[in-house]
Amino acid sequence: MDGILNIHKSVGMTSHDVVGRVRKLLKQRRVGHAGTLDPAASGVLPICVGQGTRVAEYLSESGKAYRADITFGIVTNTYDAEGDIVRQAPVTLSREDIEAVLPSFLGLQMQIPPRYSAIKIQGQPAYKRTRAGEELVLEPRPIHLYALTILDWQSPRLTLAIECSKGTYIRSLAYDLGERLGCGAYLSALVRTRSGPFELAQSSTLEQLAEATEQDTVTTLLFPSDYALQQYPAIHLDEATTARVLHGNAFYGETLPGTLARVYDDKGRFIAIATWNEQELVWQPEKVFVQL
Question: Which CATH number does 232-288 carry?
Fold first, then answer.
């Protein structure tokens, strides 16, 4: 079985928990996730199965979308509801106050990740070192915030729709927003509504997957591996060139936007991912998905 499952992860499960459950349900070892989702968050978690695991790295590079509840007037040490309260302040904000500062967060930003995060420092996750009593200072990382839209404002809670690049910490965004507005804030709830092309409306729960395994209808929930690569252009080959690609050989083709492309054979089957070699002016198969 090969492809990608769009799983709706529930609150309380780790991404690894979901992978373990899918392995057990499908009786298949080759399973992995594309883009970690914190236990306190719910929503879209793409699970790659079989040959689908070979596109996980490209899917992880894709943009994300979230629906976040941010509560003002309270700051926690983890920047979310799981942590201890370290500061409180009265909230006198209006919707207009929030709308006025949101544009300054858009575009390319340098964001400092939470100290309670899985980012590794000298081989150890930051959260472990923080819990051991170390005073860590994490380096800012480049992120891109494409859209911030207010969905609801019922003081002190803001519901925000967010479109962002990979590597964005919504907890840090909540904290930074609270600091900018002067009263502090923490992330009180989070739902990932999109990961790459996978939308929340298309997702399936683990319970639905379990039911599908009993009814032998899992394939109806499985997206083809190339569905995760829609952001890359497609190249369609003739029979002779297809044979070259299946042997891992480079091939000539038109110059396309970017340096990666999806490759299809003369029957329309997805067979490879290729990279553009600017020096040789050829496409080089990077990963071949069809066995000879």
Answer: 2.30.130.10
Domain 64-195: assigned CATH number: 3.30.2350.10
pLDDT, one tens digit per residue, over 188-240 is 999 999 999 999 999 999 999 999 999 999 999 999 999 999 989 999 999 99
Whether 38 sits among the annotated catalytic residues: the reply is yes
The structure's pTM equals 0.90
Rounded to whole angstroms, the Cα distance separating 132 from 125 reads: 11
For 33-82, write each residue's pLDDT tens digit. 988 888 889 999 999 999 999 999 888 788 999 999 999 999 999 899 98
Query: Between these two residues, 18 and 115, which has the higher pLDDT value?
Result: 18
Say whether pLDDT at 291 is over 90. Answer: no
Q: Which residue in 60, 21, 16 sits closest to 39, CA to CA?
A: 16
Set 38, 69, 226, 265: catalytic member: 38
* CATH number given to 3-62+197-228: 3.30.2350.10
* CA 227 – CA 196 distance, rounded (Å): 10
For the chain, the domains span 3-62+197-228, 64-195, 232-288
17 contacts 33 by C-beta, under 8 angstroms? no
d(CA 87, CA 148): 26
Q: Helix crossing, 206-215 with 15-26: angle to 10°?
A: 10
Domains 3-62+197-228 and 64-195 share a fold: yes
Give dist(CA 73, CA 96) in Å, integer: 17
